[in-house]
Amino acid sequence: MSGTEAGPRLTRRRLLAMGGGGALGIAFAGREALSAPPAGEAAVPFHGRRQAGILTPAPGRLAFAAFDLTAEGSANLEALLRDWTAAAERLMAGKVVQAPAGTAPADPGEAVGLAPAHLTVTIGLGPGAFARGTGRAGLRPTPLQPLPVFQGDRIDAARSGGDLCVQACADDAQVAFHAIHALAHVGRGGVNLRWLQTGFTRSHSGKGPHPTPRNLQGFRDGTANIAATEASALRRHVWVGNEGPRWLRGGTYLVARRIRIHMERWDATPLALQEGVIGRKKDTGAPLTGVRERDLPDFAAKNPESFLPVIPMSAHVRQSHPSNNRGVRILRRGYSFADGADPGTGDLDAGLFFIAFMRDPGRQFAALQARLAASDALNDFIQHRASAVFAVPPGISPGGVLGGGLFA
Amino acid sequence: MSGTEAGPRLTRRRLLAMGGGGALGIAFAGREALSAPPAGEAAVPFHGRRQAGILTPAPGRLAFAAFDLTAEGSANLEALLRDWTAAAERLMAGKVVQAPAGTAPADPGEAVGLAPAHLTVTIGLGPGAFARGTGRAGLRPTPLQPLPVFQGDRIDAARSGGDLCVQACADDAQVAFHAIHALAHVGRGGVNLRWLQTGFTRSHSGKGPHPTPRNLQGFRDGTANIAATEASALRRHVWVGNEGPRWLRGGTYLVARRIRIHMERWDATPLALQEGVIGRKKDTGAPLTGVRERDLPDFAAKNPESFLPVIPMSAHVRQSHPSNNRGVRILRRGYSFADGADPGTGDLDAGLFFIAFMRDPGRQFAALQARLAASDALNDFIQHRASAVFAVPPGISPGGVLGGGLFA
């Protein structure tokens, strides 16, 4: 993965226009200058204090994969992370990946000519990366363990867990998928793909204010999320501090949950009931006690006639609110998914692929979810079908390796 | 579906800003003017000689669904087509759908505030829509029958066939999915969703020339496709003429095939072999006998040393070329898919969702595919996993109903 590294300003397109070079020449001889440059070549910086894809604004498309280490890969996690780090840097810059000498093209090729499209590649380590026998068993941080099964869960093991994860977000689905495809290719022999989930959220132009996206229930989702500008909340709720092992400090944990929405039941539910379940108005996103989306919910307010709470006791906004959960907050990055239909019933296999970053999955997500699983009115309309947790190392400087602190 | 129809210039966003009206007011009272207008409000015209989504340039995202008529729906196909026509027109204009009086919101809501995003909704009828007992059995056009099983096929019945299809293409995956979701909602009771396939192709800015997209094998795909400007080729190969029943004249047939790519095997194949299998160069898309993408392949050219054909006998470009298939051409509209990984092996469940429009599926697609299934070198790397065929009625004028000619 080194020696033929092209300069940082060489995009795939420019390399092609130049006629290729080094290892790239094998795959793409670049006999013609490609036509008009792709729009929006914006690339997200790869290096930094945090990995990209956590605070970075979420672009419209997600490809998220979990991988399992093979027996050989288990012994060579360090080499794999080094190769993936180099590949991730190239991908985010819109370049083709390079790979150790081989007869096949180093890069699968479907993103040649495409802009970086704000691609971010975020890499995490699951509990299995610290399995006994790899010599790393003692390095597993205590909070990195599979989440408990909560009331109502119906977890599909084949879509859950994993020794490593790669989150690829981009404006372009082809660019996001290519990142997973290329890392699977680079890692062949060391890792096998375990599962892959694609997702989408509303597209936006990148200009002007971005309204909170709507989920597939038609409600705005993410109104009360932690903002990238809330430095003290991020320190308190997201970044691992001195309580964590040295290699993970400044990093975070990623919890992923595949949440199926019972779309047919939800769609058949009257609007007032939908709004009561969520505790917000469908059109504006305002709490039932407010007028504007960002108005704070008034959980004490009562209907003057019925004397019932305006925001029902089981409403999602009440059950999940920090004020009712010892102040717990998490940084969410949700994408919708639509994976087909159930044979026979024709029910949509669609919902929310929930991703959240936090400092301690047990004290934050698990505590919150235990409450929601017991009391949230939304449970009549959703079901958690897959679950995974990963430790996400901090960002790196040029020359560093993601997760490299594990081997220091 | 009538009576409360809003003016054609009322987009979802404007309706919200106005405070809603009519049936819409039930779902979205529009208490606030939404913030900045979404970018690129470009809407594709709904009315015209052809249905949209056939000649319309393919935007980046696909949601394609097949539906089966319920017993009740079978008796009311005409009413269903009337409701879907009205809904499709509203969707393509970026409006929420309306529905017969009910307690639940008429529109699921996830596209509220989003631009039309070049959405096209294309509706077709499968063989089952003409089943015995519905009174329409005699109206089934002879070419509308399930395709034969070809050599090497491994067809999944649950992802194949269907009494009706809806192809939704848009710049935004959320808008494309919403169209399917909304039509499923509008059609509830009359149809059940049978299968849903999402897909993607390269995004482009809408400005400047559009290079031919690359498929997940990394090759340009669609170089020799029929162009929307080739009027005489379209007449000859795509539009149903006087040979068809009156209601279908000016329409076409749609063939859909879910083609899985054995990605791991392909990615491990040396570049020269990949290029020999396709018969084109990977970087430029030029035939192996040419320099530029649109150079015509020279099937007679021989390597001066080996005396072997430069374009191998089994190369895809040779096997599929019109000159080797009695002049058969079809109008393709392919999207890539990435639906996850096979549990156990970790192989990507990814490939090409092949859509093609043609005048006669038997004489065109089936004849071509019979040859390819027997002789195409690509067969070592792909497998057809699902199959469907639909008759696509012509476009309509305002007041018309898609497929309405069936009931005239």
Characterise this structure.
The structure is a homodimer of 408-residue chains. The first copy, chain A, has 408 residues and is α+β, with helices and mostly antiparallel strands. Helices cover 21% and strands 18% of the residues of chain A. In chain A, the strands form two sheets. In chain A, strands 5, 6, 7, 8 and 9 form a five-stranded antiparallel β-sheet that branches. Chain A starts with 11 loop residues before the first helix and ends in a 16-residue tail after the last strand. The model of chain A is unreliable at 1-40 (pLDDT under 50). Chains A and B meet through strand 1, helix 5, strand 4, helix 7 and strand 7 of A and strand 1, helix 5, strand 4, helix 7 and strand 7 of B.
